[in-house]
Amino acid sequence: MKLKTLLGTGVVALSLIATPAMAHRAWIKPSTTVVSGENEWITFDAAVANGIFMPDHFALGTDAISVTSPSGKAVEKQNAQKLHYRSVFDINLTEEGTYKVEIANQSLMAFWKDADGKRQMWPGRGKTGTLAEFNSAVPKQADDLQVVESSRRIDVFVTSGEPSEASVAPSGKGLELDGKTHPNDLYTGEEISLGFLMDGEAAANTHVTIVKDGEKYRDTDDAMKLTTDASGAIAVTFDEPGMYWLEAEFEDDNAKAPAQKRRGAFVLVMEVLSL
Amino acid sequence: MEFTFRKPTGVARKALFSLAVASVALMSGASQADELKVTLPRMSVAEYHAPYVAVWLADGKNKRVKDIAVWYDMEMENAKGEKWLKDLRLWWRRSGRSADMPLDGVSGATRRPGEHSIDLGNTFADIPAGEYTLNVEAARELGGREVVSVPVTLPVTSAQHQSADGESEIEKIELTLER
Q: What span is annotated as the signal peptide, if there is one (chain A) (predicted)?
């Protein structure tokens, strides 16, 4: 599906769907996704803002960002620094293959109205809600009580040498890539199938938004808006190389009690290359 | 000072097949060796670095069949010269990223501007019959990147002479195959 053909089509409709967790757009963006040589570095930005990739809102803290090497080792982030509008860090790539850089969390969330009719929310912003805490912190008889099983994930993959599979394999938790298409092997002019899983199963009807870098210099974000098919996949062809921001949002009623809804949010920064 | 920003063409791989299927056999009796001549252009730039160059044979599906030459800064300590191999981005995807550098009999030092001959003596001997493409890709520090290609029919049952001109990083390639 082409970028231009989607302009204006589902933009209004989709903006009415309740956004699960991320009102703004978050990203972890690498300086490059492909390097060669035996001892190379990649530097990253992590931020939350409205414009892709224009850090003018707040920095995404680096503490929760994990880096996994092709062989599954935890990789130390170097020179990590939280700046005003963005965080930065480097990684040193000494193994050949694909590295995963990720923030992932899962939480119970509850929304209700208290006796005075005021909206309440649990847990607080940035906190993780567990079932044990839920039982003591949330009034079960409250008005309009809504309980959501929420998962968020912000991913980016980078590769030294040949792309490898291990770090791309799905975890089975929350919304994520299904591991069938390698995120560091994306080229213009080739149809790319991207599949998504929710808790390990095909995430059908996931809403996917893709925005190309350089939004600042366009009148609109020119977002591609796609919905996954029954197998949880979208098919997309990129005409232009560059960095792309992808957000996927999933919601259904197939939640474990006490939750009534299950939501997944997933962000991926992709670099599309030309040949 | 004047800067000119060249708009990327998007069609990076121009099909520059200038089909010069000439009968080379008539040349002064002396049998010409099987060879590929690669001419790197002279540049009038303040800071010139010899380009990285990859030469490889690809099949009809663009799959690499055989690497023929990779010229890069292979003498740098700690294999530091491998850092820029990815800039040969077509070759990198088709071959380089899965190769263990240096490649025996393939890797070599970078070459200066001028004509360079690659001996293709027995290069194609073990390759199944078919239509192939010989690709030459060059990428230069502080410069650009270009791919120039010519078709090859294997096995060589009659003399083949193919040449193609580049526009920026490669001046010309010229393939000669004798029976």
A: 1-23
